[in-house]
């Protein structure tokens, strides 16, 4: 989506008299929607902003989510949007350009929303290797997560492409779902230890650069090497480069760890006061159910933080009216 449409779903989002929200949630995936659900139930003034580009859109089903196993990802988000609307949480379609300290959330080609707290749940993007056929079949029979898709391709002839250091571990993991797994070294130079581990685990190793993933009849048929040889396979696993979509957090000055990922505490609070981040934007390994849990934890923390601020303001007003002072201990 190149430009914000700013279409509102779920009724007008509630703001305070001065137009300020309690919380603006950026990103309407599992983390953002679950946080918005809890905050809406806590009667906070919440709006969710979403560019409409979920990471798992290519996948036909999601797995590992209790009571939702096998549900299409788009259906989960549809259900989530309907649920937050019941609690007066608005959803605005559009892309956020930046967040200013204060906090003003500026949308591309749209309004500026003022808020007391921010939750960023913008996820990550998968950078796929430049191998013909990979992008075409991504999320169908070119896969990434064995926990998400391994059972659906169990006992079939599988491939793992050596596109990065994580591929070896991925191949050893994929072996749990099939006795017929071929590891294609592609551009990865295997250490003697990794080669031994793969062979000892029953994987076949095929050297040489992968030319393409062969697709025929709307499905993957095999892996073709640069020398023209073809190894028939029913599905392939590829370890993409995962890049967090954290420009909004970086722009606010949120601290990062040595690997370049935003640092948060166990409630998803960042190093910048009033700013939380949850889901794949801070954790590449978070599945849908994990991201939803992170959104829940963040919502509890955000509401508690707002509560402390509300009480402090109430105490200040009380003292102005009654001239009250803090009582001494024990009196």
TrEMBL record:
InterPro entries per UniProt: FAD/NAD-bd_sf, FAD/NAD-binding_dom, Ferredoxin-NADP_redctase_2
Domain FAD/NAD(P)-binding as annotated: residue spans: 21-295
Domain of life of the native organism: Bacteria
Record keywords: Flavoprotein, Oxidoreductase
Any single Pfam family the record assigns to this protein: Pyr_redox_2
Catalytic activity: [thioredoxin]-dithiol + NADP(+) = [thioredoxin]-disulfide + NADPH + H(+)
PANTHER family (UniProt xref): THIOREDOXIN REDUCTASE 1-RELATED-RELATED
Protein name (database record): NAD(P)/FAD-dependent oxidoreductase
Annotated organism of origin: Actinomadura napierensis
